[in-house]
Amino acid sequence: HALASFWVPTHEKSFLVLFMTSGQDLGSVLANVVSPRLAEVKTWLVFAFWGGLAALWFLGFTALGASAPEVHGSCRASGEASWIRNGRRAGDFEEVRQMRESMVPRRLLREPCVWAIFAGHVGVNYMWYVLLSW
């Protein structure tokens, strides 16, 4: 969500989050369908296939992606970075980065909302794993 907050205008963010979370769920289901068939051929093939796919994703994102439009060369050159920056609420990339660097984990762990997010995340993940293995 942090990456999306810098790249996507506010009015398009809900669709992108829906798209991203659906991709995670469909990927988990697809992995449960594909992995046993790969394991029937050779057990190491499961690791090689998913590791290779992850490496391709990493290389593609490293070559084409950036943490924010302000630091992406072609976005700055085309003027798209200013269009995205005007349509978002995340603030300036440098200001947010400096604010994040000044955060102290101990101070964050004292906040009840952080623990609520953590508990919700653990609960949803546990429920998802139960549903996948049903």
UniProtKB/TrEMBL annotation:
Keywords: Membrane, Transmembrane, Transmembrane helix. InterPro entries: MFS_Na/Anion_cotransporter, MFS_trans_sf. This is Uncharacterized protein. The keyword Transmembrane applies. It is found in: Membrane. Its main location: membrane. It comes from Alexandrium andersonii. GO terms for cellular component: membrane. The chain crosses the membrane at residues 44-66, 113-131.
